[in-house]
Protein: PH (Pleckstrin Homology) domain-containing protein
Amino acid sequence: MTTIRSTAGRVAAYAWLTFAALNLADLVFGITGEPTYSLTACTVGALLLLGSGIAYTVGLRPAIVADDAALMIRNPLRDVRVPWAAVRRIEGTNAVTVRFAGPDGAVLESRAWVHQTSPRAQAKAEARARREQRRTGLDLRGRTPAGYAAQRLNEMLDRNRPKKRTGAPDKAAEAEKAKESARGVVTWSVPAVASLAVPLAVLVVLVIVGAVT
Structure:
């Protein structure tokens, strides 16, 4: 199994979660003073939980996970699972982009949240790779984060999708049938949506209560 994540995103998310946990503990147990359960304290707690939900969905959840059966793209709120036979193309420019056959057979495209960069940053990264290639003589094409990730995924695609075998009509027909019938699916992540919706709803209620009291 291959798992591709953003190290910087995970570090930032864990930093926030640690900060939020310490502050919530202080509010509840009064580590630095008396515990308080006022409306203001509850509002601060809801904000900390909402921030933790954002840290989870943006920093911890996003990943590209690939095994022998399928490729999965976990974005902040949605999951895309594509059997290798349904993959049509994988590219890595300023983001890892996967084109695949969707549930109704139409070709869909999904961009991975992991390793997204602006076109300007991508151009700078490619220029650095070319300079290193001239200096070292090594082929560094695709060594930008998105490009390198796409290269690894394309290698897995070549290994795992059904192949036509010359001289074996039955096997060739079977491979073509598998390719035509394979479909990728896009689903909402219930835990991710809940991690944002629940604290946001609590925060809205607290604000309304504060406004009417």
Q: What stands out?
A: The mean pLDDT is 86. Strands lie at 2-4, 63-66, 70-74, 78-83, 87-92, 96-101, 107-111, 185-188. DSSP finds six helices and eight strands in the chain.
